[in-house]
Structures are given as C-alpha cells and as structure tokens.
C-alpha cells in the first residue's frame, strides 16, 4: 500500500485530483451511494431545475459495467498519461495556465453537451487534453498497439478510431478533438505562428490561487516577431519546439 500511496502522491497536483475524482465518482455511482441518474448532464434538470452540480459530476462520472469497463480503464489511462505529461512538460511550473486550459476546454464541452444533449463529459475532456499534447509534440514518433508507429499529431485520430471499435461511437472523441484544437489554435497557433492577437489569457485569480513555481512573467505570452523568426530559422519549416516529447508507454 505504501508503494501505491507513493505513486499516487507522485502524480502532478491537478492531474492527481482529476484522476482521483474520475475514480471516486464512478465508484460512488457503482456502489449505489448516489443514484447515477443524478450524475448525468441533463439540460432540463440543469437549466430548469437548477441542478448546477450536473456539469461537474458528468465530467467525472462514467457508468462502469461489463460492456463499458474496458473503455473506462483505457480512457483513465489516457487521462493519467497525457495530463501528467502536459502538466510536467509544456505547463511545468505553470499550474494556473494548465488549470485555465482545463477550465476553457471544460466550459466549451459543457456548452456543446447542453446543445447536443451529451450526458457524459469525461471522454471529451480527456481527448481535448490528449489533442493539445499531440499538437505540442506533433513530430514525435509514438508507438501504439501491436507496434504501430506514427507521428504524435495523428494520435487523437487513431484513438478516435480505437474507441469507436471498442465503444461504438466517435461523438465524444470528435468533440474533444475539436475543443482541443480550438484551445491550441487560440493559445499557440494564432498568436505565436500567425502573429495574431492573443484571445486567451489566464485570469489573475488563478495565478493567486496557483502561483507559478518558477520566476518570470505569468502566462505564455506572445514572443516578439524577431524571436519568432529566430526560432523558425533555427528549427526550419516555421515549427516551434513547444515541449518535451514522450513515447507511449514511457513512465
């Protein structure tokens, strides 16, 4: 048990709470301590009956059973792996920026879920984080099942197909990929590569709540044009080295 506790404490802070909630809430529903019906996102109950907890519980809850257990465990693995890698990689020392990314993606997914009557939000949020990681490490070669190898930028779409095979639907994965793309475009691609304005900025209250662990200016910022040109000349092809890469299965 001490080894398990040490492993759990080694998980980055934000990922640790997200991972724990994604185990605790399905377990509470599975044991019947709370009716699973009260954990889904139902637009009528949320909007007209003011059951404001539903977007939160729908993010953590997943109906675990004989037909869904494997899909749940696979996506729990993706949550642990790619949220940890983002939090300790591109967002290392910037917990407020990482929390802002999760909040932005979550709000977009909740709005989409209400509009499309999506009752569960766990997979879309996980896929949005995985998509951002894949874009920040897009040229890295990753390995998937049965030894297949491809660039990380294709990973979200490979997993979309994989989840379709084991789960029979792609809506959740597709919504997650689209939301992840929206965040990546607005935060990184448009202001840094295309020289546009920065539409997304981490609120100051998040910096007060989760201060940066290393000195410097809060947030990512927009590098000067001269710096962008220097990076492009150094790396070629206009690509930025957004973060440290990893291969699937690395611990």
Automatic annotation (TrEMBL):
Family (UniProt): Belongs to the derlin family.
Gene assigned in the entry: Derl1
Name recorded for this polypeptide: Derlin
Keyword terms: Endoplasmic reticulum, Membrane, Transmembrane, Transmembrane helix
Pfam family, one: DER1
Residue stretches spanning the membrane: 17-40, 60-80, 101-134, 154-186
A Gene Ontology cellular-component term: endoplasmic reticulum membrane
The keyword Amino-acid biosynthesis belongs to this UniProt entry's keyword annotation: no
Function: Functional component of endoplasmic reticulum-associated degradation (ERAD) for misfolded lumenal proteins. May act by forming a channel that allows the retrotranslocation of misfolded proteins into the cytosol where they are ubiquitinated and degraded by the proteasome.
InterPro entries named in the record: DER1, Rhomboid-like_sf
Location (main, coarse): endoplasmic reticulum
Domain of life from the UniProt record: Eukaryota
Chain positions covered by the region annotation Disordered: 231-251
Record membrane topology: Multi-pass membrane protein
Gene Ontology BP, a term: cellular response to stress
Cellular localisation: Endoplasmic reticulum membrane
